[in-house]
Amino acid sequence: MLNSCVMHRHTGPAPGIMVWRGIEYHPRTPLVRIAGTLISQHYFSEVLEPVVLSYLQGLATAIFQQNNARPHVTRIVQRFFFNHQIELLPWPARSPDLSSIENMWSMFAQRLTQIIPPAATPDQLWQRVEAA
């Protein structure tokens, strides 16, 4: 039981948070913390109106990509894209998630798991996410 021979691991429940970010070739959107589970109303009021709209207005030509998650296909969300004339990349139902941002999330999660000691609360995790 020498300290030099022991590898400490966190085995209890880990805190979790839901975040959203948009990426493009160079710029990216701010990181948005979603309170609780992502529902269409949160997606609309916390992501689309305040972040996506201003982000896409700064790009000459853009096609917005999202998968077919339930919050993405609701009437309020589809109406938002239609009203603002935002072109969506067609995404087939039940398709594998081939979005390029999935690679970024994987690398991001790996970096967070290497921070010692692990975050004990969602707020501590958010502070680390913002700093990363």
TrEMBL record:
Gene3D superfamilies (alphabetical): Ribonuclease H-like superfamily/Ribonuclease H
UniProt superkingdom: Eukaryota
Record GO terms (molecular function): nucleic acid binding
Pfam families: DDE_3
Protein name: Transposable element Tcb1 transposase
Family annotation (InterPro entries): RNaseH_sf, Tc1-like_DDE_dom
Organism: Trichonephila clavipes
Domain Tc1-like transposase DDE: 41-113
